[in-house]
Amino acid sequence: MTDQEVDVVVVGGGVGGVAAVRNLASAGLSVALVEDRLVGGECRYWACNPTRTLVRPIEVFNLAKAVPGVREAVSGEGLDVPAVLAKRDAIVEHLSDQSQVSSLRRAGVTVFHGYGRLAGHRTVRVTTAEDTETVLTARHAVVVATGTRPNVPEVAGVAQARPWTNREVATMTHVPPRALLVGGGVVGVEFATILAGLGSAVTLLVRGESLLHNCEPEAGELVEQSLRSKGVKIHFETELSAVARPAPGGPVTATFHGQTIEVDEIVLATGRRVNTDDIGLETVGLPVGGFVSVNDHLQAIGVTGGWLYAVGDTTGRALLSHISTYHGRVAADIIAARAAGRELSENELSVRDNGSVAQVIFTDPQVAEVGRTESQARAAGFSVRTRTARYPDAVSRLALFRDGFEGWAKLVIDAHTNTLLGATFVGPEFSELVQAATVAVVAKVPTGLLRHAVPPHPTVNQVWDPLLAEEPEIVH
Q1: What's the pLDDT tens digit per position in 233-259?
Q2: CATH superfamily of 365-468
Q3: Is the CATH number of domain 151-270 3.50.50.60?
Q4: Distance in angstroms (rounded) separating the CA atoms of residues 316 and 113
Q5: CATH of domain 2-40+97-149+273-339
Q6: Which part of the chain has CATH 3.30.390.30?
Q7: Which of 122, 208, 213, 264 measures 20 to 30 Å from 370, CA to CA?
Q8: What does the alpha-carbon distance between residue 357 and residue 59 come to, in Å, rounded to a whole number?
């Protein structure tokens, strides 16, 4: 066993942990990063990056078929799947973190490949695959960035059938001819888009009454229509009851609502579990196995001295990679400021992720949203009014972008302050619209002022025009 002292120890090398150590090292602090798998984490190797790489060719192919002159030049009936998978392999660097580790070490970060557990006050015990141990002591702070893992429901035969999760979809070497997808949330509809777009016959089981139940209802309805048009069979208010795979690698039989189907793979998109059940939280007086509650300085609530921080998925505030990165940067800034002797006020350098989180769902059409939906805003006690528009009806010139252009958008507005509480955009390439809405939500820009941010013609940004046309003018 060896002992080592550094300024900050970060446990977990996903995007949140990597953002934290880079910013801490840039601030001149000595920092150690502990990761037991690949440095770069879920997003880089098994989630955002590979799945976006898989869905992009599907988007481009569908767009090409909808543009006269291009449609006629597109040969063949489908995509070159081996080429798609080869591009994915290049993006994830063939599941090697060598470039990431080298980059961090050049920045002055000490990287430990091993499993990190808290071992009391400002202490982390690292165990490697070779059973060697290093005890790290932090002078200033420990950051927990251990993320989440796929949730596997307790259904008879599921575990034994070796189901696919996001990791298997992101790294698949072949496209299953028949796939049963379980889950109608963000991951479920993205996987349905990918697998159907690459040639799989997809059946989708949804426990609730609609897709994307945390989004505006119209978003789920438009995605449902699109998936059905691509041959996806969707069963609502349906739960998996039993699964069997008699032969390893062979077909899977799945039973739900009294019927049984045979598929080549079962794919789970049934939520995430936080990785805090074996990281030593009990040694610092925190409950094991749940999200780590933090204040707006990302300090763990219940740990005296303010030395323990948690970021990203570990906090449960928003399970999104860009929020994890944001948390990592903010936590690093706070730790560096405190290490330099600065006393921070309650609002100084605090995270501002309450009611302003943006996300994009990469389906066809795309769903881009920020802030609160109408129902969420009303539940939070806001008095709201809304603006909606359907395209190309509201902006006829959008039809020039592709045949069959169809989109929808909604603004949720605080009726008292005339500022945006949330926005949802559903349509082709609408992911590029959400950042403008995010700025408006975070900065609390009055809608009457937004009217004067005139979108250039002809661009998709003109979806804003009908949404703001009747907003009250600001009187100075």
Answers
A1: 999 999 999 999 999 999 999 999 989
A2: FAD/NAD-linked reductase, C-terminal dimerisation domain (3.30.390.30)
A3: yes
A4: 25
A5: 3.50.50.60
A6: 365-468
A7: 208
A8: 25
Averaged over 323-333, what is the pLDDT?
Answer: 98
Q: How far is CA 120 from CA 79, 138, 279, 281, 283, in A?
A: 54, 11, 11, 9, 5
CA distance 452 to 134: 59
pLDDT in tens, 58-90: 999 999 999 999 999 987 778 999 999 999 999
Of the candidates 187, 184, 196, 178, which has an alpha carbon nearest to the alpha carbon of residue 266? 178
- Rounded to two decimals, the pTM is 0.95
- Count Cα neighbours of 179 within 13 Å in the Cβ-side half-sphere: 32
Cα atoms found within 13 Å of the Cα of residue 118, Cβ hemisphere only? 27
Measured distance CA(167)–CA(57) in Å, rounded: 20
Mean pLDDT, the chain, rounded, equals 96
Token pair of 118 as six digits: 């808290």
Per the omega criterion (within 30 degrees of 0), is the bond before 458 cis? Answer: yes
Evaluate if residue 97 carries a pLDDT over 90: yes
Exposure of 455 by Cβ count < 10 A (0-12 exposed, 13-18 middle, 19+ buried)? middle
CATH 3.50.50.60 maps onto the chain at 2-40+97-149+273-339, 151-270
Measure the CA–CA gap between 9 and 316, rounded to whole angstroms: 21
